[in-house]
Known about the structure:
Two copies of one chain form a homodimer.
Chain A: H1 11-18, H2 50-62, E1 68-69, H3 72-77, E2 93-95, H4 100-113, E3 117-120, E4 137-140, E5 147-151, E6 156-160, H5 165-173, E7 177-178, H6 191-197, H7 204-207, E8 214-220, E9 226-230, H8 242-246, E10 255-262, E11 264-265, E12 270-277, H9 280-292, E13 299-304, H10 305-315, E14 325-332, H11 336-349, E15 353-357, H12 359-371, E16 379-387, H13 393-407, E17 410-416, E18 421-429, H14 439-454, H15 470-477, H16 479-492
Helix pairs in contact in A: 2-4, 9-11, 9-13, 13-14, 15-16
Amino acid sequence: MPARPPADSSPLGQALAGGQRLREPAVPQVPGTVPVLTRANRQWPAEPDPQAARVVAALRRELPSGSVRADLQELARYASDAAGLRPGAPPAAVVLPETTAEVQAAMRIASALRVPVVVRGAGSGLSGAVIAPPGGIVLSTERLTRLIEIRPEDELAVVEAGVITGDLDRAAAAHGLRYAPDPASADFSTIGGNVAMNAGGLRCCKYGVTRESVLALDVVLADGTLMTVGHRTIKGVTGLDLVGLFVGSEGTLGVVVTVTVRLRPLPVATETMVAFADSLGDVGAAVQAITRSRVQPSAVELLDESSLRSIDENRGTDLAARGRAMLLLQTDGHGATAEMDELESVVAAAGVSVQRLVGEEADRMVELRRSGRGSKKDTWRIGEDVAVPRSRLVEMIAAMEGIGARYGVEVGCVAHAGDGNLHIGLSAAMRPGEAEPPAAVHAAADAVVRAALDLGGTITGEHGVGALKRPWLERELGTRQLQLQRSVKAAFDPLGILAPDSFLATV
Amino acid sequence: MPARPPADSSPLGQALAGGQRLREPAVPQVPGTVPVLTRANRQWPAEPDPQAARVVAALRRELPSGSVRADLQELARYASDAAGLRPGAPPAAVVLPETTAEVQAAMRIASALRVPVVVRGAGSGLSGAVIAPPGGIVLSTERLTRLIEIRPEDELAVVEAGVITGDLDRAAAAHGLRYAPDPASADFSTIGGNVAMNAGGLRCCKYGVTRESVLALDVVLADGTLMTVGHRTIKGVTGLDLVGLFVGSEGTLGVVVTVTVRLRPLPVATETMVAFADSLGDVGAAVQAITRSRVQPSAVELLDESSLRSIDENRGTDLAARGRAMLLLQTDGHGATAEMDELESVVAAAGVSVQRLVGEEADRMVELRRSGRGSKKDTWRIGEDVAVPRSRLVEMIAAMEGIGARYGVEVGCVAHAGDGNLHIGLSAAMRPGEAEPPAAVHAAADAVVRAALDLGGTITGEHGVGALKRPWLERELGTRQLQLQRSVKAAFDPLGILAPDSFLATV
Lengths: 507, 507
């Protein structure tokens, strides 16, 4: 595996490293225990914490010196994820274990000292699930990067949690296989992070999300016990499905150290098509026509006008001139051409202009979808990640546009239309001297999430709850289910030391 | 939905109804609390149980009279599943709720009186997960048969738990859709039962097992609370995945009353091929060649010589004359023909003779695979359901044959070779006057399960643990994981009234 740069690109990391202007992503009010730093209060207390010194000493007694970091710059670098929420006081230590045994030692110490622990992959998460617990431990899996085995004859791979997802996929490709889930972050997020968040991606409408590709996990429990859950077999129904429970649990149940994933054959062919629609109604008709077809596409991506403009501004393309919204469709496998022929016919019949793309042209369009949009200078921005039943997609976009107009906030979205998952951006110009995003952006974000719930949807399709979505969690799950989920967590972590400010936090 | 006959085909039900000779399926020794009836002791105590009368009275106060049954014939009819394990004393009552509210009322009464409850679908399970608790309640979902909605535009259906799986599939077909999992029991098992056991089937190697097709559940908890878990959306990561936890939980966590399933497009084409091999080694080479191909077949079924002979004897075919083992392959979708062309080429290259089948010939071969084998007269038989990594399939069959020779027991198998799941039959002739299967059959079954574990496999691929597989459960999960699973159950059912003799039983 190639070495990766340390995950120091968080706003706080950048700010502390270079003293540059801090543009923290706007966040709704979080009712948790983490005192969130604001621009007005972004210095950590200068006084060292005596309890923190005890934690560091205990860790250093049991772990190699290179595995325990406690200088302030390192603590800052690992204090948050890409959501930019930061704790008001530093953690005691960052632990960078190189082996499962080191993870177990760290957890035994944390349990003995009743110290909170947050597990961290690449820190690329967008929901604030990784915020360093003040006085606690950040346990980063970034040095657990062994690719333990690839077994083409069983179509599976066993890798350590810190392996970059794209590296796993490339290693599989050498055997004619692939790791099917393809989060946009695949080139820098880790498989352990993907498991923690149950990451999605473009191909998930055909191949399922992370959960559908995880067969087994080695996990270290809060007390340091190492346990294997799941099977090396494709099928297996022995006992409760603890693999499914760990996937998406956001680090609340244990530390995933090894992941056994299912691999799938690389498709023999992939077909790509774009379609441009003049109205939202036309896009909706095209998406419904795709659903009614007998085709299971491998990608159905929708970009609205705002997203097309953003790509045009950033990359010099002319997509927005071609329609009010764009669909990017892919099919793959032995039937790819026949499938795309059928999609071309049903989408065209819905009154939308279509164009088949091949070779570099197709690759470029996919790349533009994945990373073509730039972030605007001097702009506050909140990114939402809701999902609705596919048939409500157009209603959701219309609701989003109404909310934008009502609050005077610019809105735009890209959607994994094949599974009803919308990434909605809400932004407003930054005014001189403004220290926080204007209330209207927060209010619009709140309205967007509520609209998704009202349409039978969910508050997060693939980014996770983390700290950012906690204000809406109980509204979706209900009080009793939230209590039940907390009881389940308590079965794994009776001391409550893992991810104490997670979505399952009780305070 | 067409009405279904009551589930009275269990060995005990038949025995009690018709007084015919009781041939109970042989069972390994079960260390649970259920006193299992033997041939020597198959009469229930004649004395009525006063506590049972209180339970029945409480139920009759709250539920319509037709929903509570307590006569001995009804109690016997619902006392067990198709595994044939029977309790030594009758349950107090069978509850046949027609509505979710009745399920809630029954569970409130059970909680108030601390009475154990076993939830029952069609009673077609093969693992002994449904054994009536003596003095307790059998809650049958067979009258919860409403098909609440089918939404083609969202590719989902919402049905009550008692709907027969095949009926759901046929209702979906009217919209060009299907419910992909296809357990062999689809024409008589219920979707609720499939959810409880995480049922598999032939198509699961391409489309996944029940878990991959369940989006949301309405469940009644042990205390009568109604709760919805999961989403109507294809994607959703809000909170712990309680849907995945309920699927395969064998009735230990709550009563599933409504199931929201994902539907998939009916494939435009299906291709079928059979291949006959002269040796186990050739079959193994063919299966490996299929795995190495770029094709994801929709069925890869393997029948060994013993299974072919059984079909021949039962149906007058001549399959066993054509080879020592048969593979039955299907591909489906737009690429079905191209995919089967590739499979034909790689399987033939492995030295195995192939034949493409079309139309009725193909349908007949699939039907023979599903239900062509008869049960021999005057024979004791234990059926096992293990899974191993695909690459170990031939080793598992060789081990099975060695075990058969060692214990003087006839062995045979059919396997879902596409996911390494083997159904192994172990049988021995019944001797005059013999009341129990000979010890050699039990010992051989034990050796088969241990062989699967030694090959990196699991004790049950799709039938579930139930009572039959409990003796091996801890060996697979380990003591700590079993404790953890029990703690998770306790979070849902603190009184421990649900499925008290399940795989999570503590005594």
